[in-house]
Backbone:
């Protein structure tokens, strides 16, 4: 989700960047073009008006003047030298007087512009005035500007779409790299990134795949080393078993033999766990495992005069923990009871189903709860302090949790919540 969210933000930023860049380029191009279109329209209107005035100027001083004025398709006024006017009525402005001196003048007028052309006649200088309204000066300009605006918006949208496609081609492989990284962090060492996208992204994908392979190789080497070390413990265990069998006291021999068996199971568990190559969860019947381990510890409890009460479900109770791992957890909890409570202290083991799995509770009537037991490697009584840590890791590996409390009547209560398989 994080990877996808980041890719979406990158796509939006790239789209905004392209939109801003495209807009600036279009403004730099379209604004001068719009001004040019308006200038061309004005020049065209003024050129047509000048041509019309010059066509009338040719007829000044001839009998064809009235006919020439009538043939022009726009308002034309001729100011004759004797003060008379021909054509449309118009006032004699300052520009008309200036043009009467023999100049051609263009001046602003109300509602448009006037083009003034002087023409010589036997009576003197005549002035031909052609009026150009504002509508003609801007004819076609709004339509052209609207077309430019539509073109600009279309180009911006097209640029954003292209940028989004380009960003998607970059962010999709990056999102894939993020997902693979999360899978590797979650323990899935088989996850590999697909080689896609730009060369830089492909290079990162190759590096990530190489890193994942290297991690897998290192973990395999570590597992093999642990397994080899565990196998080396077999030899002293065998010698210890032979020494236990040679004891003369049958009870002492049985007790030592039981401890050797427990140590050998722990070594076997280490070997099995070290050789696991997948991150998938195992499962087992919690009822059968707990019953078997309580039956094993009941022999020692009977020797120490401990009362053991057990409550188990009638049927199987599957949990997301391997049988050996759960057995190690139960052994750690019951071993703590024997190690940290005096002989004769009662204990109880309860296994109850829960909507999400199972709850294993081990309670004793000993002196009470020692907070040091919660810290790995610490203990106030000389033990390794790893018992509760083993139980905690077992609970968390199944998605559950471990809690330790002190009941009101004294003693310690340890609860291990396991999720269902």
Residues:
């Amino acid at each position: 989700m994080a990877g996808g969210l980041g890719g979406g933000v990158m796509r939006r930023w790239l789209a905004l960047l392209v939109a801003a860049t495209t807009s600036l380029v279009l403004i730099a191009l379209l604004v001068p073009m719009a001004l040019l279109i308006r200038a061309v329209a004005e020049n065209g209107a003024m050129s047509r008006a000048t041509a019309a005035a010059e066509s009338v100027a040719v007829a000044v001083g001839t009998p064809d003047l009235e006919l020439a004025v009538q043939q022009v398709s726009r308002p034309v006024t001729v100011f004759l030298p004797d003060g008379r006017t021909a054509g449309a009525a118009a006032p004699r402005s300052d520009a008309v007087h200036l043009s009467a001196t023999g100049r051609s003048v263009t001046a602003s007028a109300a509602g448009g512009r006037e083009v003034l052309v002087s023409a010589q006649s036997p009576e003197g200088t005549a002035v031909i005035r052609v009026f150009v309204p504002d509508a003609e000066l801007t004819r076609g300009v709004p339509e052209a500007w609207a077309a430019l605006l539509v073109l600009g918006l279309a180009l911006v949208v097209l640029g954003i779409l292209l940028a989004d496609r380009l960003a998607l081609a970059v962010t999709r492989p990056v999102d894939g790299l993020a997902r693979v990284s999360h899978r590797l962090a979650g323990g899935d060492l088989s996850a590999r990134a697909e080689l896609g996208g730009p060369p830089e992204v492909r290079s990162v994908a190759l590096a990530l795949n190489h890193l994942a392979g290297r991690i897998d190789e290192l973990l395999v080497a570590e597992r093999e080393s642990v397994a080899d070390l565990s196998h080396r413990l077999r030899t002293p265990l065998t010698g210890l078993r032979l020494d236990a069998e040679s004891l003369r006291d049958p009870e002492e021999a049985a007790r030592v033999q039981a401890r050797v068996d427990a140590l050998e199971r722990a070594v076997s568990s280490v070997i099995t766990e070290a050789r696991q190559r997948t991150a998938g969860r195992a499962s087992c019947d919690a009822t059968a495992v707990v019953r078997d381990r309580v039956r094993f510890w009941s022999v020692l409890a009977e020797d120490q005069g401990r009362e053991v009460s057990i409550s188990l479900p009638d049927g199987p109770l599957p949990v997301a923990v391997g049988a050996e791992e759960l057995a190690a957890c139960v052994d750690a909890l019951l071993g703590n009871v024997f190690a940290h409570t005096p002989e004769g202290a009662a204990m109880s083991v309860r296994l109850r189903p829960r909507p999400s799995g199972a709850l294993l509770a081990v309670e004793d009537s000993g002196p009470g709860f020692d907070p040091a037991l919660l810290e790995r490697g610490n203990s106030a009584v000389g033990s390794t302090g790893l018992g509760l840590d083993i139980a905690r890791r077992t609970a968390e590996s199944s998605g559950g949790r471990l809690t330790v409390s002190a009941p009101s009547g004294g003693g310690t209560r340890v609860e291990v919540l396991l999720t269902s398989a």
Q: What stands out?
A: The first helix runs from residue 2 to 57. The chain has eleven helices and twelve strands. The two ends are 26 Å apart (CA to CA). Residues 375-385 have pLDDT under 50 and may be disordered.
